[in-house]
Amino acid sequence: MVARMHTRIIPSTGAPLPVIGLGTWRGFDVGNQPAELPQRGEVLAALFAAGGSVVDSSPMYGSSEQVAGELLERSGSRAKTFVATKVWTSGRQAGIEQMERSMALLRTPHIDLMQVHNLLDWRTHLATLREWKSQGRISYLGVTHYTDAAHAELEAVMSAEVLDFVQFNYSITDRAAEQRLLPLAAERGIAVLVNLPFGGGRLLGRLRQQALPGWAADIGCESWNQLLLKFVLSQPAVTCVIPGTSSPRHMRDNAGAGTGELPGPAFWRPRLAELGV
């Protein structure tokens, strides 16, 4: 029997969301390479087979929205997908036009989560997103960023605005979000998507040169990917982590982190020094 992926609750609605998703930056930007599409379809199939649902994209990611939309339509998988994308422009009308184009590229009249990418003109876009949410065009709204330097501004927006989701960077080597953002998300009832869970990939390259610690098996980890993702999920405020990949094998591996034991921060504290982080 295949273990099913854990879910966590979206605080604003109480709906469950699988804890491992898929980021499409770079990996799905292959719209001008038709021969690459079947492999991306296999990535999506691996996500769904493991019980995942979140697919996160952006107009910033080249042809990723187009590729994801085509593959979801081709496979008939839209109904099982939690589609998240972003608005990344300035001005109300430009934002509306960009979001409508995203819907067309993703081949859906409804987006599960629309986010203001990197906080660009966030006041303008949040007003539009609230209108769209009331109209049923989107289910959830949020804001994103990917650098520690933006955490103070993210904190200010999270404190001042009613948000369903926030997305930011967090990893075993970049734990700044523990200071304010994760506690604030829990306090404010904001779901958290985590990007860059592998620290941009450099960490994985280093760790793969060494053996997994013996205790990794105690929490069901068979790879460094799974260990690093389980670390991110040790924070109860994290709702879903969205590592990017273009490899079906890596997607299956990543998804495995969402099963079995998910130990909390107390488990990890004495083990961080052993990992050299």
TrEMBL record:
Which Pfam family would be a valid example here? Aldo_ket_red
Coiled-coil features, chain-numbered ranges: none
Concerning InterPro entries, the annotation shows: AKR2_Oxidoreductase (IPR053135), NAD(P)_OxRdtase_dom_sf (IPR036812), NADP_OxRdtase_dom (IPR023210)
Report domain NADP-dependent oxidoreductase positions. 20-259
Name-wise, this protein is Aldo/keto reductase
